[in-house]
Amino acid sequence: MPFRTVTAPEIFSSPAPMSPATLTGGATIVHISGQVPQDASGTTIGKGDVAAQTEKVIDNIEAIVVAQGGTLADVCKVTVFLTSRDDLPAVMEVRRKRFSEPFPAATALIVAGLANADWLVEIEAVAVLA
What we know:
Oligomer: single chain
Low-confidence stretches: none
CATH architecture: 2-Layer Sandwich
C-alpha cells in the first residue's frame, strides 16, 4: 500500500469509509475511468439494486488494478457518482466492506443521471502502485 492517510486538526473527521486526503509515494499511478455495473459482455448487473451495482463497479476497479499488479489496497482516491442521495448509505456500506484502512480519499456526487438509465452508481478511481 504505497499511500497513507493525511489530515489536519482543523477539518471534520468523517465517519465515512474515506481518508480526508492521501499521500502517495509510488512510482506508477493508474487513473481509472468511471466504472459502471457492467460485466465483460456489457450486461448491466444488479438493475434496481445499488448495493449489487456498487459491488460490480468495485469488482471492475479491482480487475483493472490487479491486471497492473496491484490490489484494492492500492486505490488511494475514488469519486462516486450516484443518481439518488438515498443510495449513499448502501454504497458507503459496500465501500466499507471492500476497502480497508487507510480508506481511499473520496468524493461523492449526486447527479441527474448516468449514461445508461439503469445505472445507479459510477465510480472512478486512482491507484498508486509501488
